[in-house]
Queue: 4 jobs
Job 1
Amino acid sequence: MTIKQYIEPVVIISDVHVKSTNGWKGQIDGLRRLWAAAGTVVFNGDTVGVREASDGTSAEKILTYISEQCAKDGAEAVFLAGNSDYFLDVAKHLLLAEGRILITHGDAIFPEMSPWWDEAHLYLAARDSALRKMPQELRSTLEGQLASARKATAELAKGNSCENNNSSFTGRIKKKLQSWLAKPRKGWAIAQTWKTMPSMAAKFTAQYADGVKFIIIGHTHRAGVWRVADKIVVNTGSFAGFGQPVIAHFTDGKLLVQKLVRRQDEFFPDKTIASFSLL
Ligand SMILES: [Mn+2]
């Protein structure tokens, strides 16, 4: 496998979830301090959640704007696909440090993608079918697993957009009611997912990328660093809502995880909460 040389320091963030409303440029500008000293910024999935913002700007154009802001600050932006922006024509993972660090959004580590989700069972079936259609030797590889996750997400999105177009007013009310009723169950499912996420990430790494020591993900919107057996799991969290994201920072054989502070609409790197030497 060939690994591209990325200019260090490499900064990794996830789940920016750029707003689809007018404030999207300001939101991106508020992140510039995060890559001020970086050579490369990896946006580890769910950077955008919609194909088009309300002002008509496409997801691809929003990414171009992000790339331009990074370039102004001397950093190259690298985008990976998450489950919300599965449609982007970009990779779903990246290996750093001679393959010892795996960066991927994290939806693929759960067979159901988002176990708290109402349609988890549909996704599970779609993922299963995508895997069954794959040549056997590909199924148990990292690439095969990630491809099946992306395929299942795309399958489901296709189904949902038909449903939305045809849904009646009473149908929509019914759906809303159902989602309110499901709230306590959902809260429990999210808490369960947060609990199992480190072990699921470590298991996924051991199964499909065993040479990897560090797996850096996002997706569950809960930031943190965990050691599970011989793997280190880093979750960089999310910028959506009241999320408390962190950044991972790789340079000179050292991996740091840094807290961020938010002042109004701007994020600034703060205390280092974990540091690892890969040398
Ligand atoms: Mn996600």
Note: The radius of gyration is 19 Å.
Job 2
Amino acid sequence: MSDQARGQRVTFEYAGATVEMVDAVTALAAARVNRVEMLRGASWPEPVRRVELSVSSEDGVQVFASEISTAADRFTTAKVRALVLGADPIGVLLSKRIEQGDQLAARLVDGVGNAAVAAYRKLGLDRVPQPAVQREPATVADAAVGLQATVTYDENGTLVRLRAEMPRDDVSPAHLQAFAGLTLQVVLEIAGPESLAGRRFTLSRESLPVEPITTSEVTLDQVGGLANIVAELRQIAVSFRHPEAMARWGARRPQGILMYGPPGTGKTMLSRALANEIGADFREVRTPEILDKWLGGSERNIKQIFRDARRYRVPTLILFDEFDSIISYVGSGGDAAGQAINAVAGIFKQEMNDLIEANPNVIVVATTNFPHRVDDSLIRSGRFDVKMSVPKPDDAGRAEIFRKMIRGLISAHEAPGFTMFADDLDLAELGRVSFGMTGADIKEVLRRVQLAKAMQEAHSGGQAEPISQEELVASVTELRGPLPAA
Ligand SMILES: Nc1ncnc2c1ncn2[C@@H]1O[C@H](COP(=O)(O)OP(=O)(O)OP(=O)(O)O)[C@@H](O)[C@H]1O
Ligand SMILES: [Mg+2]
């Protein structure tokens, strides 16, 4: 995978520490929908125990928040108080650091002028009589990017919090970088000079709705019992990979695919496998998460997702999972929620219309359990050119799913001297007895048997026998529950 496909990486230094920021643009976009934890893989200098840094959205503003927890001792409390109080409002610390040529501190004072005088202004008002104007939380700022954070701490002085807000549409990776810098500045004040030297931190998003996910493990070959769908997806992948041929004939490849069918039939799996077949990044938007409790928030979220989609420079499959949630109310209800959803659906239509012209790198898949709820105009051809029904598997389909899953487990777990499945397996019988089940159910049947075996071994200490046909059938029966009396 190219570096670009992995996301933009920016590395910067702070007080001798190296901070790597990964794909901040995507992370910030994701933070419009969901709170995103950004800081990881870090070990902290004593007495700092833990530092968290998150970005989230509230009513039109992007909120940067961090929390620094320290060992509970009074020594720390004193330091933290010194940090935010200072002997004078500017703080001895700051002037000292400017002397030492610390750019951040200098920027702080130069850039914010008198406001920066309030930097490190604090809260411990009980101890030092201060004019009313200073009865505010302390402030630290990075004037270069215009980011100001308030600093507060809890009673014990073991928890320091930073918080900064920016209008959502103004936020850029530079602000994230600046906020991380301010957080590290406070850590440095607590733990002492040099305490960050040589450390490495990563700012990246953990698991978010539009995260590119490595799909390498999921392939169309692993899908059981949906031969026609798999064949069609392979054709779509070919069309995607050959834009020159499409252009020469003025042909347009499908830009949107709607998959519908009962839960657990493999829709999400198929989208991932398609991304893999195309060689595309996979970005999942959990549609319910677009919906924002604030008026206008949902519209902004969906617009932002498409704005980002226009910019993807690598082939990308965007999955709108549980798509019905944004369209199920179309045409119904005049309440605020209904109106917001209608607005989102309207924007979705407009955006889908020209997305592919704007960015040939993108293909959109939407999944739903309720196709009848989907407004026709949303899925009329041109927006979603391909509609696929993903049904529950029949006997042969289930047998094939068993076969593929078992084969996968064997190749993942069997080792010399360890046999996972007995020789007596009768896949056709498993297909028959599991009537009515989906791929997700079959996965659960296997999970239970695996767990039972592992537990058996854990209790007995000896090696358990391989999984037998009988045990698989019993697991199917158990999952199904007692059959209704005839
Ligand atoms: N046809 C199939 N072949 C192989 N595995 C399958 C199949 N269908 C489902 N599975 C297994 O079940 C799991 C769950 O399926 P998946 O999440 O794709 O279902 P879904 O159709 O998206 O369900 P939902 O509508 O509830 O979102 C998959 O990760 C996969 O392991
Ligand atoms: Mg799904």
Note: Residues 336-358 form the longest helix (23 residues).
Job 3
Amino acid sequence: MVGSVIPSSRFLARKMLGSIDFKTAKVIIELGPGNGVFTRMMIEQLSPDAHLLVFELNDAFYEALKREINDPRVHLIHDSAEHIGKYLDQYGLEEADVVLSSLPLANFPLVLKNKILSESHRILRSNGLYVQFQYSLNAKKVIKDFFPSLQISFTPANFPPAFVYTCRK
Ligand SMILES: C[S@@+](CC[C@H](N)C(=O)[O-])C[C@H]1O[C@@H](n2cnc3c(N)ncnc32)[C@H](O)[C@@H]1O
């Protein structure tokens, strides 16, 4: 479920966040924050009126984030990533500008991969951004099925080295 024992490097974080325009992005979804390396970097750049919905399924990571992050713009959600729509409704939000995912898709059954990607695609606004990192190209086909417009870049300065998929709806 976790996919890695070592948190992502700041190099990978910079690459993951590099395409986000924080001035205009008002609704950002993060899937699989783990210990929150990307979450904290996003909080530093979030607009005052932005919402960041963070989905973490693991009890220990969720509890630690809850203790450490206290920001009214951040909504920590202890639920699985395929339920994004339910929580957008709950917070009165219509659509998202960005979905940033660290989920280990390669380890997921196909049904779950499809659910998460189709839900991410559905709730993104037109031309919205989907960013995903993976340690292999294993999930390329399934990501491309939902986001045909995609770019892949490689980050050797991470352990393990990672591929970043940057996609537009
Ligand atoms: C590879 S770790 C990434 C952690 C961190 N973002 C990083 O890059 O260092 C993947 C995270 O996804 C979480 N996760 C796995 N399945 C999930 C699901 N269905 N919904 C939400 N989070 C999930 C795991 O608990 C883990 O924290």
Note: The first helix runs from residue 10 to 17.
Job 4
Amino acid sequence: MIKANHRMPAPNEVPRTDCIRCGTCCKKGGPTLHAEDTPLFEKGILEKQHVYTLRKGEVVRNIDETLVVLEQEIIKIKGQAEAWTCMFYNDDQRRCTIYDHRPVECRALKCWDIREFKEVIARPRIQRSDLINSNDGILRLIDAHEQRCAYKTLELAVKGLEGPDSEKAVEKILDLLQYDHYMRPLLMEKLDLPYHTIDFFFGRPLTTTIRMFGLCVKEEGDSFILLPEVSHPAGA
Ligand code: SF4
């Protein structure tokens, strides 16, 4: 399950009054970005390859650990490989490598007093269009991808698995997954997009996020097989 704002310490941790650089907040995931963070891109501190998009309709874990469906897309700093740890956290040195330029959520997050953090997460969040030139043709491709691979469409298809036309539902799901999967390398090549920017432009692959619906896929040659997800029933 994606955790949009899950960076608080566990309730049973010892209360603190100042930062002891334990790194817990940075290890629980990178921040979601807000309007105040846009200058970080202009200064080159953050680049598109450092962030990814959680699209409208994705299920995320809220600050109070409840699950919510995103009503609007958000942009987050990536983790380290498969770990949640923010990509800018240096575990050996126990420090943020962009500390002087850290995003607004990081500056507001004090695990002993979350009032400022709560106020910050309520502020406007940036979206892909805030970071892309309005004349850039990729905006039309992002829009087309949103129309074709909307999470609402995927959700309806998944619901169809329980209905009388489950075979058609499987076909629809696989069609969405394959479209999303194959258009990525194609666009990278045609538009000369760096590999690490693709999850910013088009969100995470549906072959990954399908886990939020309790499903996973196995690749066999050029096609996919749909399977029940056993280890992450509500996504990862
Ligand atoms: S940007 Fe820095 S302070 Fe913020 S989560 Fe990442 S490592 Fe921690």
Note: The pocket of iron/sulfur cluster is lined by residues 26, 30-31, 77, 86, 88-89, 96, 98, 102-103, 106 (CB under 6 Å).
